[in-house]
Specification:
It contains 7 helices and 3 strands, in the order αβαβααααβα. The chain is of the alpha/beta class. It has a 3-stranded parallel sheet. It is globular, with a radius of gyration of 16 Å.
Length: 138
């Protein structure tokens, strides 16, 4: 609430940036709870950029996003998915679906944490921007 109060008292342009998450339902439920408490600041939902699964697990454990580790552990049980690098496509789709159904949500954008490297994250984002532009053109 401090950030909300500060934003109200000043002309500071404020937003809330979350820790990276792999479970959109947990983030969207939290966003709804704080909105119910009177928070009106936009939320930039954190997502992990493309990376090796073991890198994501290490970051998740060291950053304290323990509940998200279970999502990664489920992925690790599927050997075919274990061999492929993680890409946040499903998480982005989950947020896009939620934001389409809840246009007044506090979640206003995504924030990509480049855990697999800046170049890898930028290439992934550029690839998806190009794909989206092609879909919109058709």
């Amino acid at each position: 609430m401090f950030k909300q109060d500060f934003s109200t008292r000043t002309d500071a342009d404020m937003a809330i940036v979350t820790q990276f998450a792999f479970d959109t339902r947990a983030v969207t439920a939290w966003a709804e709870r704080i909105a119910d408490m009177g928070v009106t600041l936009p939320i930039h939902a954190g997502i992990a950029g493309p990376a090796k699964l073991q890198t994501l697990i290490q970051f998740a454990l060291s950053c304290g996003v323990g509940p998200s580790v279970s999502v990664l552990q489920k992925r690790a049980r599927d050997v075919t998915r274990l061999l492929m690098p993680y890409e946040p496509t499903e998480v982005v789709a989950g947020f896009a679906d939620y934001m389409a159904r809840h246009p007044d949500s506090l979640i206003s954008q995504l924030h990509v944490f480049p855990l697999g490297g800046i170049k890898t994250a930028a290439e992934w984002m550029n690839r998806h921007v190009a794909e989206e532009a092609m879909l919109e053109a058709n």
